[in-house]
Amino acid sequence: MSAITSATSPAAAANATAATAGRTPKQVLGQDDFLKLITVQMTQQDPMKPMEDTSFIAQMAQFSSLEQSSQMARDMTALRSDLKLQSASALLGREVTVGTAKGEVSGVVEFVDSTTDDVRVSVGGQLHSFSDIVRVAPAAAASTQTQT
Question: The pTM is what?
């Protein structure tokens, strides 16, 4: 028996291994994948035995359902983001406690920032994620009311 030797250099083999290690397999087929499958199926079918109408209609219904589900997921993500921004805005001027890696920080919410994917609140001049808030109370100045 003869051994097969590699014609690639060790550096090329290391690069190929690194590229393969960095690649993550796709877990879910998307609408583009579904459309490609239907296209390939249509081009590869036997002209003497074309795909049945019911089969094609069922696949198109699945495609339509997939598109609607994808749109609903995008809409739900946008709605969640809008609700987060609205909830964070309601905290303006209120005393909050934020959990951080170094402990807890308390202070009044000065402003709300939504320039990134995450809604953040400014407490004591520092931006903190809205989801890190662990306690909300009325602002100290607002809680001391004078009676007339």
Answer: 0.53
